[in-house]
Amino acid sequence: MEVDILADGSLDLEDGMLAGLDFVLVSLHSRFDLPEQEQTARVLRALEHPEVNVFCHPTARIINRRKPVAFDMEIVLRRAAALGVAVELNSSPHRLDLKDSHLMLAHELGCRIVVSTDSHRTRELDLIRYGVEQARRAWLEPRHVLNTLPGKEILEAFRR
Fold first, then answer.
1. Helices 100-109 + 73-83 axis angle, to 10
2. Domains (ranges, CATH) in the chain?
3. Exposed e or buried b per residue across 101-119, where buried means at least 16 C-beta atoms within 10 angstroms of its C-beta
4. Under 8 Å between Cβ of 43 and 10
5. What is the 8-class DSSP label of residue 67?
6. Which of 6, 56, 74, 85 could bridge across to 80 with cysteines, CB 3.0–4.6 Å?
């Protein structure tokens, strides 16, 4: 389930509910204008929740419509790597979030990466090709992307 990160970094679902989920994906969907230091602390708090598996479309950008959220990317990626929280490469051509230079940094810091279409309709599943191209620009290979692994290995990789 994709869960909103609230303004203070807490999650928009009770802990008991989160514990019953197979995968918890967290995303910024509001409060994009917080100062960088505050936004960084907000994201870090969310990533530290023990049920979180993936940080989705991390900068929340929408190309030519919404600027990326300002936070310290290196600090966030370093913490995600330490916690075993994967970061999403959102394949939507309107997002392509993370961008290639952030993906390179994520890989360098040891972050696990998931390529996702963020599809809301089956016809959008085809958008994966844009994410694959973005991953290639970042010099990522299939072995660097969690969802290229066999099913059992994916499940094991998401265990925190």
1. 40
2. 2-158 (3.20.20.140)
3. ebbebbbebebbbbbbbbe
4. no
5. P
6. 85
Phi, psi (5° rounding) for residue 46? -65, -45
Beta-strand ranges (E) seen in 12-71 are 25-27, 54-55
pLDDT tens digits along 123-134: 999 999 999 999
Task: Quickly count: other Cβ atoms within 10 Å of residue 137's Cβ.
Answer: 14
Question: What is the pTM for the complete model shown?
Answer: 0.94
User: What string of DSSP letters covers 82-104?
Assistant: HHT-EEEEE--TTT-BS-HHHHH
Q: Token pair 């995303």 is at which residue?
A: 27
Cα distances (Å, whole numbers) of residue 60 to 13, 53, 65, 119, 153:
20, 18, 11, 16, 28
pLDDT tens figures, 87-96: 999 999 999 9
Is the pLDDT at 138 greater than 70? The verdict is yes
Rounded Cα distance, 7 and 25, in Å? 17
CA distances to 19, 88, 90, 116, 150 from 57, rounded to whole Å, are 22, 6, 6, 9, 24
